[in-house]
Amino acid sequence: MVREHYDPEVRRRLQANSDHDVVLNKYFEEWYEHIEWNLRARLAKAGVSYDYEEDCDLFEECRKHAEENARQIEAQSVIMLTHPFYLQLSHMQHIKTPQIRKESNEYRDRLMDLFETNLPHNSVGLVILDTIHHYAAATSLLLEGGKIDAVIFTLHDDGYPVKPFELEQFSEKDIYVGGCYNGRDRYDRKGCLTRSIGMIRKKVQSEEQIWAISDLILNTPRGKRTTLKPVKIYLGDEYFPDERIITLDQLIEKFRV
């Protein structure tokens, strides 16, 4: 079956262990049809906090899996990505031009570069903020494989954490953010990454602790887009200053031993 919302290259790069083409982790294959439908439709039928029906059970299983595979973060710095595979798992049907497809592929490859670099755990931690459906489909493989340290679950299609207090453990750390999406959409709603950053700002001691990873941040592909690359990266209702924007290569060089 052709799935227009899905980038099949993710399956190869994440070394899927399931027989399914979208739900890549066999741990969650019991929920395959439910997860696949949610990745495609993106309708919060069970509430934005996953309070009802199958989402409630899946959320509990996701939390259990995440707790069992998480690692303590002692490092002073943390890379924090919001919905990093959202475009690749749910929005590929919105890619309309060769240029935007090229940018999508570049983003995906840069994302995998980060996970495959294996930065030293004592120098920098790696946390993903994700929905339960994207976690079950893909992000959980990264946690199982030790490529990331922890996951904070967000509301359905919203970068706001289900449990905002989970960000408090990072209040004194330097945080490098990336993911999807920056800015506002065609309805003037804040993107999920921008929503996450807004909550992070409330939890850290100083805004100067927050940095943006320029080539790991995308704008939404929905609407009449000519590029996914942000001209400005939102920091609340303002923008990140140039001195707190860093490339992935600079970040890797900073923390690589």
Name some characteristics of this structure.
257 residues; alpha/beta; Rossmann fold; 8 helices; 16% strand; globular
Task: Describe the 3D structure.
There is one protein chain. It is built from eight helices and eight strands. The chain is α/β, with parallel strands linked by helices and 257 residues long. The protein has one domain: Rossmann fold, CATH 3.40.50. The strands form two sheets. Strands 3-2-1-4-5-8 form a six-stranded parallel beta sheet, with helices on both faces. A two-stranded antiparallel ribbon has the order 6-7. A hairpin with a 2-residue loop joins strand 6 (234-235) and strand 7. The chain is globular.
Beginning-to-end CA distance, first to last residue: 44 Å
The tally of structural domains comes to 1
Rough outline: globular
What is the count of DSSP helices, taking H or I runs of 4+ residues? 8
* H and E order: HHHEHHEHEEHEEEEH
Overall CATH architecture: 3-Layer(aba) Sandwich
Instruction: Tell me how many strands there are.
Output: 8
CATH class descriptor name? Alpha Beta
Please compute the radius of gyration using only Cα atoms: 17 Å
* Portion in strands: 15-25%
- Would you identify the regions where 5 or more consecutive residues have pLDDT less than 50? none
Would you tell me the overall average pLDDT? Answer: 93
Helical proportion, percent range:
25-40%
Q: Please state how the strands of the largest beta sheet are arranged side by side.
A: 3-2-1-4-5-8
Supply the helix-strand structural class.
Answer: alpha/beta
Largest sheet: 6 strands, parallel
CATH-derived topology? Rossmann fold
